[in-house]
Amino acid sequence: MYGAQDFWNSDHASIGYLDNDPKSLILKGLHLIYKFQKDTRGRFFEKLENMEEMIDVIFLLGRMYYKIGFNDKLEETYNEFISNFSNPNKPVNYENLKTLFEQWMAFNKMGKISQDKMNTLRNEFLKREDFKNYIESVFLITRYYIHKKQYKEALEELNRAELMELCSQNSILEAEREYFFGIISKRHTSEKLLPPMVYFEKAYELIKDNSITELTWKVLYEISELYIDRGNLNKAKHFITYTRELIYFIAERIQSPRLRAAYLRQDERFNTLKKLESFYPQF
C-alpha cells in the first residue's frame, strides 16, 4: 500500500517530519487533497465520517505550506479549514489547531506571533498529550524569540523538561534542538553556551544517517559559514557544495511547479542560495 512516508519522500523529500507510524487514512487523504482541486476535495471530505481525521488531513496540508513558505496556499488552506469545521459539533482539537494555523500565518507573513496565545497553546497541547504539536509550538515560539533577539527566552523554551525528554527519544528532534542552540550561541554571548560549532556538529552527527530533511541543509550551511569565518576554505567548500545540492535536491523532488517555485523563493532558502553563490569566488 502507498503510505504516507512514501508520499512525503516522493513529493516533498522531507520538508518537515512525520510520525513514524502515521494514520494511513490521514496520509492517503493528504495525498488526495494535494492532487485534487478544491471541489473534488469537498466531495472527498463528505465521504469521511470522522471529523478529527478530516481536521488532521487539512492541518497537515497547511503545515506543509507553512514549511515550504507558500503563504497564499497556507491562507487558502486555513480558509478551507475554518469553512469545513464551522458547525457546532467541531472536534475538541479544532480550536487549538485553528490557533496554531493562525500563528503560522502570522509568523510567515510578518515575523510575529501572539506570545500569550502560543504560551497557552503550548501548555494545552502538553496537557492533552498531543506531543507532536507541543513540540511544533515550542519550536515556533523559539524561532520567534530568536527572530526578536530575545535569546534568554529562547533558551528557556529549549530547556523545558518536557521538550528535552521528548527530543531525547527522536534524533531528528534532538538535532533541531541542538541547531537552535547553535544559532543562539552564534548570535549571543553567554557563559551557559558552548561554541556554536559544537552544537552544529552534534546536530549533524544526529541526522547524517537519517533521511534528508530541511534541517540537514540548514545545519550544513551553518557549519560552512563557521569554516569560512575561520579561514578554513578547504573544509568550507565541501559543506557549501553539499548545502547547495541538498536544497536543489529537495526542490526537484517537489512535483508541483508552483510548490517548487514557492519553495525556492522562500526568503531563508533564497538568501542562503544567494550567499552560497557569493562564497564560490573564494575557492
Structure, described:
The chain has three domains: 1-101, no CATH class; 113-193; 211-283. It is mainly alpha-helical and 283 residues long. The protein has helices at residues 4-11, 24-35, 38-47, 51-68, 71-84, 94-110, 115-127, 131-147, 151-158, 161-167, 171-187, 196-207, 214-230, 233-253, 257-265, 267-279. It is globular and about 60 Å long.
Write the layout of secondary structure elements.
Blueprint: H1 4-11, H2 24-35, H3 38-47, H4 51-68, H5 71-84, H6 94-110, H7 115-127, H8 131-147, H9 151-158, H10 161-167, H11 171-187, H12 196-207, H13 214-230, H14 233-253, H15 257-265, H16 267-279
What is the number of E strands? 0
Helical percent range?
over 70%
β content, as a range?
A: under 5%
- Unreliable stretches (pLDDT < 50, length at least 5) are 1-29
Tally of DSSP helical segments: 16
The whole-number mean of residue pLDDT values reads 84
Backbone shape: globular
Which terms summarize this structure?
globular; 283 residues; single chain; disordered N terminus
Structure at a glance:
The protein has 283 residues and is mostly helical. It is built from 16 helices and no strands.
